[in-house]
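Usage

Read records sequentially. Each one opens with the input sequence:
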Amino acid sequence: MKKAIFLDRDGVLNQVILKNGKPYSPANLHELSIPEDVPHALAILKSQGYLLIGATNQPDVARGITTQDAVNSIHEKLMTVLPLDEIRVCYHDDQDHCLCRKPLPGMLLAAAEQHAIDLTKSIMIGDRWKDIEAGKKAGCQTIWMHAHYEERQPTSADFTAYSLQDAMQWIISRR
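and closes with the structure output:
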């Protein structure tokens, strides 16, 4: 069985766009910005034998704010510049009751089945309570990337980090 690091996209792999204390996804490649520490932290995690899988909710497609093509172009760029194995995405909104939409664990469970991942040896890293909840429901350890958003915060993360570098160091220290 393999082990994986599941990574939320916005706020973990790339910077969010903050408006009035709330995080928003970049709408296109022009708005995409990757924090400096992300490529190095991911390279170290990859060298430790982890699959690196993005797991992201992108409801702005269902809401008509952006297109699936725009989201796909962002994912193509991330896959080109970062050592990710794949990016899984849910385009639905809450009212769709989709099983892959975080806080439900569907994306993580599907990846585990496809790649023979041991979820008990895997970690979900996210910047919002829905990410942490999905990780917990899947049986993963969780790392909350604290970004001081003005919204509900998770209460049960295994570790709180302030950068992907912090998260990577915690993961490595526990091996």
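Summary fields computed downstream for this record:
- The longest strand covers residues 50-57.
- The chain has one domain: 3-144+162-173.
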